[in-house]
C-alpha cells in the first residue's frame, strides 16, 4: 500500500508540475520596462537587490520573493510608474506576495519603516488596490522557486540519488536564481528554464558526480546551455554577493566565490 501511495504522490506531483508549467507564458511579461519612461533596468536592479535582504529580514520564503518580483514586472508591463514611487511599488508587491504565501506576512507599518517612512499607509493601501486591479487579482504565478523544488524532488526519487549532492545543488541554485531576479536580462527566460539551468550550473560548479538529468525539464540542450552560460557570467561577476546568499556549508564548497 505504501508503494501505491508513493506512486500516487509522484503522479500528483507530476500533474501539478505540468499544470504550473502550462501557465508560465500567461504570467511572464514580455519586456516589462518597454512602457516605462522613468524606470530603467538599473533602477529595477537596485530595487530587487534591496528587496532580497528585506525579504530575508522578515524571514520570508524564496517563493514570496519570486512572486513579488513577478507582480512587480507584470505591473510595470501595464502601467507607467514615476521614479519617486518605485520603491513604494516594490514593498507593495512584497506585501501582496507575502499575503499569498506566508502565514505571518509583514505589517504595513514594518514595511513603511524600511522606506524611512517616505510613504504613508494610505499611499501603500491605494497602490495595493491599483496593482491588484491591474493584475485582475490573478496572482498564482508559477515561480522559479516552485520549479527548483520540483526538479530537486525528481532528482531525489531517481535511483542511486545522492541526497547530500541534491541538497547542496538546491542551495547553490537558489542563490544563483535569486541573483538572476535582479538582472533585467533574465526576464526573458521562463521560471522553469531558469530553475533547471540554475541546478545544472550548480552541479557543474560543485563538480557533482550524480548531477540532475536536465532532460526532465523538457528543454532542448542548446537552450539550457545558453541560459547556463548567462548564469555562469552572472555568478562570475557577483561572487561576493552570491556568497552572502548561501548557507556556510555550501559556501565552503565554493572556494571560487569572492573572486569578483
Description of the structure:
66% of the residues lie in helices and 0% in strands. The protein has 260 residues and is an all-alpha fold. The chain has 2 domains: 23-135, Cyclin-like (Cyclin A, domain 1, Orthogonal Bundle), CATH 1.10.472; 144-253, Orthogonal Bundle (Cyclin A, domain 1). Helix 3 (41-57) packs antiparallel against helix 4, helix 4 packs across helix 5 and helix 9 packs across helix 10.
* Percentage of residues in strands: under 5%
Largest sheet: none
Total domain modules: 2
- Structural class determined from secondary elements: mainly alpha
Spatial extent as radius of gyration: 19 Å
Helix content: 55-70%
- Annotated CATH homologous superfamily of the largest domain: Cyclin-like
Quote the CATH topology of the largest domain. Cyclin A, domain 1
H and E order: HHHHHHHHHHHHH
**Gap between N and C termini, in Å?**
53 Å
Q: What's the architecture of the largest domain, going by CATH?
A: Orthogonal Bundle
Outline type:
globular
Mean pLDDT: 89
| Count of separate DSSP helical elements | 13
Domain Cyclin-like: 49-133, 145-233
Pfam family, one: Cyclin_C
Keywords: Cell cycle, Cell division, Cilium biogenesis/degradation, Cyclin, Cytoplasm
Main location: cytoplasm
